[in-house]
Amino acid sequence: MAGQGVGRALVEEAKRRAERSGDVLLKVVAALEAEGFYRRCGFELVGETETLLGRALIMLQRLEHSVAK
After folding, report:
1. Which of 23, 42, 47, 51 could form an S-S bond across to 58 if both were Cys, CB 3.0 to 4.6 Å?
2. CA distance 60 to 28
């Protein structure tokens, strides 16, 4: 399914839902191999963590409505 836009559509829907809820940040714990994908979606790498499946990345995106007016 790679390259069909499914992942990006899921990220965009998560962002819309988070913004509607008033959240200011969206956080993902991602597989090491997914760093490029999340960077292309606007996330930035802020750290690493250990999960049951091994090392993973912590990535954040500040949501648009959170910008000070």
Report:
1. 47
2. 6
Judge whether 23 lies within some domain. yes
* pTM for this model (two decimals): 0.83
Distance (Å, rounded) from C-alpha 33 to C-alpha 23? 27
Domain range for 16 is 6-66
According to the model, what pLDDT value does residue 52 have?
Answer: 95
With residue 36 as reference, give the H or E element that holds it. Answer: helix 35-40
Note whether 66 and 19 are within 8 A (CB): no
**Residue 41 contacts residue 11 (beta carbons within 8 Å):** yes
CA nearest neighbour of 38 among 18, 58, 17, 64? 58
The Cα 4–Cα 33 span in angstroms is 18
State the CATH number of the domain containing residue 33: 3.40.630.30
